[in-house]
Amino acid sequence: MVPGRFIDDHIARQGIAELVRREHPEDDFALYMIDMPMAATRTFRARGRPAFSISLFLEGSGTFRIDGTPPLAFSAGDVLLFHGDQPVAGENHYHAGSRLRCLDMRLSHDRLRRLGLGDLQPALAELDGEQCRREGDTLLVALRASPPMLVLAEAIFALSTRPVVERRLLCMAHGIEILAHLAGIVTMDPGGDVPGFNTGDRRRIAHARHLLSQHHADDWTIPLLSQTVGLNQQKLKTGFRQLVGMPPHAFLRRARLLAAEGLLMQGATATEAAMAVGYTNMSHFARIFRECYGCNPSLFRARRHKDAEASGKPG
């Protein structure tokens, strides 16, 4: 079953086809880049066929609702996951006053399994809380997107001028990478067997990684992180190096810089980006940003804005 063709018809009926860029790299893998001004509140009735979808919001806010369940709110920086084995209907409500920019990815269940992500669906089924909505076997979940997911979504939006074959291959590659980051958030499993680390240890390290990724603006220290996840400091630091590939402070710095990059690409000033991701010392932020990107944050933002103007896109 082609998961995107049904949505194509829905987009056409809503009269927003010119605001949605579509990519179908393969029949069971579709991407939609939605970019529309929201001068007024808009509500869409939606019907979907069995599929797995990811809606990653770069700008905008609103609610999604599966018929028979309360609305689920979202805002910029959120990712909504939908999983259903049966046809389903609902309502999408988008708030006025800001632009709506969303990357929507739709995959068949068979494609997920062939990507080695068969465990993702059972992991989603175990999620519970205020950010989950269930109706039978249908599930809608809202999570905060990790900084790399937001950067990859921005990269997909920026591919519009690339040659067709190159664009489709990059869309698929970035989309699969987003799935990899999503699997890390949902399954909370950083890797396989490592001597000296049992399943509980690995899950605690995965929890620590999740906290640093999702709450990178907080003032994390090794003692605080160790106490929060219930793992002694030495095992936490050693486990991060072996299972994540870097020490906790390096992972936190990377998460902050990726988030700052995404904010600068969306038009934030260097000061706004620094404060939003947890840096209060602008000189320190500028120094580590320059070490990573080869230029200071203000120049990075100016280049991004210039590139956007040249391509006719908002920067």
UniProtKB/TrEMBL annotation:
One of its GO terms (molecular function) is sequence-specific DNA binding. Residues 206-303 form the HTH araC/xylS-type domain. It holds the Pfam family AraC_binding. Keywords: Activator, DNA-binding, Transcription, Transcription regulation. It comes from the Bacteria. This is HTH araC/xylS-type domain-containing protein. The lineage of its organism: Bacteria, Pseudomonadati, Pseudomonadota, Alphaproteobacteria, Sphingomonadales.
